């Protein structure tokens, strides 16, 4: 065990006692590396879109229990040295040693340990935890520590800007340097005079929104870390700033511009060629709202906007109307989010040194301007015992080691600016957090959106932060409190008491909750007692970060505070290839709920086929909620996410990186309610994302067509299409068809001079909903054809579309269809498109396919054999349709798209081309580990 009191030894530098360290995870006389089996692997990562190799390194060494995905990501992202050179790292041992030995050396030099033996034990314990994926430092540690590069350990930065041109230009410079290093930054622009105020020269000020334009262009030019993803940044404006309405509308207006440009034929996808012409797309925007404003919203009163220099009120606006404009803009484009200023500063440990005005890009780090925070996250599932209990005492010991290491890193760390380095060394902000909460709750039989789930999450979070501050107080007795503590002692102690009181208010439901909460109570009491005497070493201890890349490094099923993304996942295999599996948490959860092995096997098999648990054989309906996920048949309601955030927020020093996903059908009033409840429930920050609200995100084909249908091209495009109507008498043909047992009729009318001009589809009983929808769909396609939309465009969009009914057809040219629309448009292509256009689309008649086989193989015997093989293949496809579907996926997100039958709102990874998935308020690629924000 690690001793929690300072005993024995003398610090060479301070003349104080150092930490006496006892073993917890390791065995004396046995190095952690000797306890595991190692194997050599080849890492070859390709871009599935064009087959090109993104990264290749062969013969790397990893433990046999590390997944292929974790191996690939660590090798490609964290190993240092030029690929192919002798200096290139090739073993996980080298990576861990590079980091851990640097930490231990700095700890020894700065008097953290009682003696050499304690330092060695600390080294072994830290090595064991990293080796066994118990926790991970944030990415900059793995990038930089122990290399010849600057020893930057922080991932989160907050900058500051004043109301003068020198400061504004310096903001551009500092932000660019941080982006270049692969990190992100946030700042508050509220000190800059509004466009409604005068300059000393007599002119009118430009206002902060105009300066945002220059910073946005800079961020779009400087790719983060020299990679292909854009920089991560946050821009905040106070709600009483006179330009607040312009700020709220910036991205919403740009989103409308994107729609206009898209409808005019420009490529406006997230990585499209023309998206760079749109402004303000590189930052997350947040409005800093006060309690005064929120009370005015509640009371439907007025609210004053104030001049920046004098503080005088220059305009009064309706608070409710302004709040509605925030919700409307967020509904349209997901920005702005809200930051609740009074709540943030009520939990501020250092108010005498300045207010908290901003956050990092992902909104989890909130502290003083010109400061930074280094992060580390624990893998919660590593502390779940076989009997389903959370091992709270072991968790405490792990937190002690990690907090100690994180604080040591500030002793040797480099920083991007002198001001950031000075503030960070004076206040020593840390950000311990966790991943795999969603998996832990499911494994223990708790629904994510349940009182029991929230109680366990709150108790674990309280224990983590309480232990962190207790260890921080002990470190203060050894190496001294943070420099800014003396000035802020009273405020810091007040916040510690607030945390402790919130811990006492946790309502427990199960033995797990009770045991964890009781230990957390003792940790808070002891921490306050020691801290009152020694002070604290760190002004901040914990945050809840997205844990994107490092989550994959630890083989976590879920990131940060998020629930399970889906019940099925995409797993890479040793030696290449991949397969669909059901999350391993699922059988563990079923076991915890009391199901027998035979029942578990049947339920897991059902989930593998359907992607959800609804109607799974033997699964009781009251247990469905345990398996609710972020997406899918039973997705967690938006308020379920908000309630979970509210449960753990009182036990986090900073805030929580999380975006509340809302369905496309959500209204502006729903967004208002989410934002209002976030304030009432005591959150520090909140952002929403409504499905399909952004043009830059990939949409399903049906939704793209809808978007075109509702646009008004005559108002937004100079060219006006002209409708070419069919004559009263026109040639036509009628086709009967069968798809997966469903019978229907297709009527196609043509222009006399050739070319399809109309279709009518009869499917379903007359007067039924299906028949009505098909009639409307047919009219829409017909009008589009008459306005000049090429048939090949419709064929490319609707062929291969998957939904029921699907399967065998009675058409010899199209034996299998993935849906009725897939069959219809491939049939239309065969009947109305020339061979060269069909060849580009990969659509051929049976005779044409036979001719191709003859050309390839040359003999009738070969053709006959090929026909037999094709029939066997068709039989396999028919019986294993779900298996064929999954083979077209390259990530869990794409796998779920196939199960759901619609595209997910997530960008494609710009490195490897796979669909990313949410991680906090960012996105992460499980193919290569790339993130869209902090990592």
Task: Explain the overall architecture.
The chain is built from 31 helices and 23 strands. Among the domains are: 32-153 and 358-551, Alpha-Beta Barrel (Anaerobic Ribonucleotide-triphosphate Reductase Large Chain); 160-352, Alpha-Beta Barrel (Anaerobic Ribonucleotide-triphosphate Reductase Large Chain); 701-844, no CATH class. It has 935 residues and is α/β, with parallel strands linked by helices. The strands form 7 sheets. Strands 3, 4, 5, 6, 7, 10, 11, 12, 15 and 16 form a 10-stranded mixed sheet that branches. Strands 17-18-19 form a 3-stranded antiparallel sheet. It has a two-stranded antiparallel sheet with strand order 1-2.
- Extract low-pLDDT stretches: 1-15, 224-230, 697-718, 859-885
Overall mean pLDDT stands at 86
Total number of strands: 23
First-last Cα distance: 31 Å
Summarize the model shown.
By secondary structure, this protein is of the alpha/beta class. It is globular.
Features:
single chain, 935 residues, alpha/beta, Anaerobic Ribonucleotide-triphosphate Reductase Large Chain, 10-stranded mixed β-sheet, 3-stranded antiparallel β-sheet, cobalt
Write the topology of this structure:
Layout: E1 38-46, E2 53-63, H1 68-77, H2 92-109, H3 116-131, E3 135-137, H4 139-144, E4 156-158, H5 165-180, E5 184-188, H6 208-221, E6 233-238, H7 244-263, E7 284-289, H8 291-299, E8 302-306, E9 313-318, H9 319-333, E10 337-340, H10 341-346, E11 371-379, H11 392-412, H12 418-427, E12 430-435, H13 437-443, H14 451-479, H15 485-504, H16 511-534, H17 549-553, E13 568-572, E14 578-582, H18 585-592, H19 597-610, H20 638-648, E15 659-662, H21 668-680, E16 685-690, H22 701-710, H23 713-716, E17 732-739, E18 742-750, E19 756-763, H24 769-786, H25 791-798, E20 807-811, E21 814-817, H26 820-832, H27 835-841, H28 846-857, H29 860-879, H30 881-887, H31 892-900, E22 917-919, E23 922-924
Parallel strand pairs: 4-5, 5-6, 6-7, 7-10, 11-12, 15-16
Antiparallel strand pairs: 1-2, 3-11, 4-11, 8-9, 10-16, 13-14, 17-18, 18-19, 20-21, 22-23
Helix pairs in contact: 2-3, 2-11, 3-11, 5-6, 7-9, 8-9, 9-21, 11-14, 13-18, 14-15, 14-16, 14-20, 15-16, 18-19, 25-26, 28-29
């Amino acid at each position: 065990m690690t001793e929690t009191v300072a005993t024995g030894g003398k610090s060479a530098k301070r003349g104080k006692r150092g930490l006496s360290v006892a073993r917890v995870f390791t065995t004396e006389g046995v190095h952690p590396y000797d306890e595991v089996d190692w194997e050599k692997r080849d890492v070859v990562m390709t871009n599935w879109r064009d087959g090109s190799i993104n990264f290749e390194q062969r013969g790397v060494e990893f433990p046999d229990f590390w997944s292929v995905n974790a191996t690939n990501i660590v090798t490609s992202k964290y190993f240092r040295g030029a690929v192919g050179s002798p200096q290139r790292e090739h073993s996980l041992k080298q990576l861990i040693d590079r980091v851990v030995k640097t930490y231990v050396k700095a700890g020894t030099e700065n008097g953290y340990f009682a003696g050499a033996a304690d330092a060695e034990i600390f080294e072994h314990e830290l090595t064991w935890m990293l080796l066994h994926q118990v926790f991970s430092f944030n990415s900059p540690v793995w990038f930089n520590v122990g290399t010849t590069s600057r020893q930057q350990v922080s991932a989160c930065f907050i900058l500051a800007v004043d109301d003068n041109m020198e400061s504004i230009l310096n903001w551009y410079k500092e932000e660019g340097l941080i982006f270049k290093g692969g990190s992100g930054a946030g700042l508050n622009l509220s000190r800059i005079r509004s466009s409604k105020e005068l300059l000393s020269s007599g002119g009118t000020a430009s206002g902060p929104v105009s300066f945002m334009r220059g910073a946005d262009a800079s961020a779009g030019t400087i790719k983060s870390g020299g990679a292909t993803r854009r920089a991560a940044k946050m821009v905040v404006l106070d709600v009483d700033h006179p330009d607040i309405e312009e700020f709220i509308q910036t991205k919403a207006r740009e989103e409308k511009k994107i729609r206009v440009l898209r409808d005019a034929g420009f490529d406006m996808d997230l990585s499209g060629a023309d998206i760079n012409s749109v402004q303000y797309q590189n930052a997350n925007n947040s409005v800093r709202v006060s309690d005064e404003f929120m009370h005015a919203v509640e009371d439907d009163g007025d609210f004053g906007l104030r001049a920046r220099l004098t503080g005088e009120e220059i305009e009064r606006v309706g608070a409710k109307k302004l709040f509605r404009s925030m919700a409307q803009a967020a509904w349209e484009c997901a920005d702005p989010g809200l930051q609740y200023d009074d709540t943030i500063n009520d939990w501020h440990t250092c108010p005498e040194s300045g207010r908290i005005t901003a956050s990092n890009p992902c909104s989890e780090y909130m502290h003083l301007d010109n400061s930074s925070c280094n992060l580390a996250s624990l893998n919660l599932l590593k502390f779940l015992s076989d009997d389903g209990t959370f091992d709270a005492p072991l968790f405490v010991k792990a937190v002690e080691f990690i907090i100690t290491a994180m604080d040591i890193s500030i002793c040797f760390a480099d920083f991007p600016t002198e001001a950031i380095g000075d503030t960070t060394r004076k206040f020593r902000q840390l950000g311990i957090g966790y991943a795999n909460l969603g998996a832990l709750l499911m494994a223990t039989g708790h629904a994510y959106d349940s009182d029991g789930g929230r109680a366990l999450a709150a108790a674990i979070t309280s224990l983590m932060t309480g232990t962190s501050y207790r260890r921080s107080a002990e470190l203060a007795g050894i190496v001294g409190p943070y420099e800014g503590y003396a000035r802020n002692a009273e405020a810091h102690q007040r916040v510690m008491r607030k945390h402790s009181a919130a811990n006492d208010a946790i309502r427990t439901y199960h033995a797990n909750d009770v045991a964890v909460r009781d230990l957390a109570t003792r940790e808070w009491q002891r921490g306050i007692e020691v801290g009152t005497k020694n002070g604290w070493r760190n002004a901040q201890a914990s945050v809840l970060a997205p844990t994107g890349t490092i989550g994959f490094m630890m083989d976590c099923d879920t990131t940060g505070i998020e629930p399970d993304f889906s019940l099925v996942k995409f797993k890479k295999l040793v030696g290449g290839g991949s397969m669909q599996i059901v999350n391993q948490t699922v059988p563990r959860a079923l076991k915890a709920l009391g199901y027998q092995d035979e029942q578990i096997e049947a339920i897991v098999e059902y989930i593998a086929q359907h992607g959800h648990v609804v109607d799974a054989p033997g699964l009781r309906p009251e247990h469905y909620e345990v398996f609710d996920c972020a997406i899918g048949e039973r997705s967690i309601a938006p308020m379920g996410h908000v309630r979970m955030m509210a449960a753990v927020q009182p036990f986090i020093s900073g805030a929580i990186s999380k975006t509340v996903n809302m369905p496309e059908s959500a209204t502006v009033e729903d967004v208002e309610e989410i934002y209002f409840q976030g304030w009432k429930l005591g959150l520090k920050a909140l952002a929403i994302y409504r499905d399909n609200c952004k043009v830059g995100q990939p949409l399903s084909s049906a939704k793209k067509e809808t978007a075109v249908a509702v646009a008004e091209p005559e108002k937004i495009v100079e060219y006006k299409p002209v409708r070419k109507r069919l004559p009263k008498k026109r040639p036509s043909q009628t086709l009967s068809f069968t798809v997966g047992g469903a019978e229907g009729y297709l009527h196609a009318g043509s222009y006399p001079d050739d070319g399809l001009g109309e279709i009518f589809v009869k499917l379903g009983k007359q007067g039924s909903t299906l028949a009505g929808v098909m009639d409307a769909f047919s009219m829409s396609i017909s009008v589009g054809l008459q306005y000049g939309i090429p048939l090949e465009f419709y064929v490319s969009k609707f062929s291969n579309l998957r939904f029921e009914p699907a399967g065998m057809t009675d058409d010899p040219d199209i034996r299998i269809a993935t849906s009725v629309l897939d069959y219809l448009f491939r049939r239309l292509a065969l009947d109305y498109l020339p061979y060269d256009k069909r060849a580009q689309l990969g659509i051929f008649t049976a005779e044409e396919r036979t001719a191709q086989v003859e050309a390839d193989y040359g003999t009738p015997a070969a053709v006959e054999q090929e026909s037999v093989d094709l029939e066997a293949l068709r039989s396999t496809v028919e019986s294993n349709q779900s298996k064929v579907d999954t083979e077209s996926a390259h990530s869990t997100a794409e796998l779920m798209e196939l199960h759901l039958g619609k595209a997910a709102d997530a960008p494609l990874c710009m490195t490897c081309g796979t669909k990313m998935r949410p991680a906090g308020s960012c996105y992460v690629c499980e193919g290569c580990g790339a993130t869209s924000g902090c990592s």
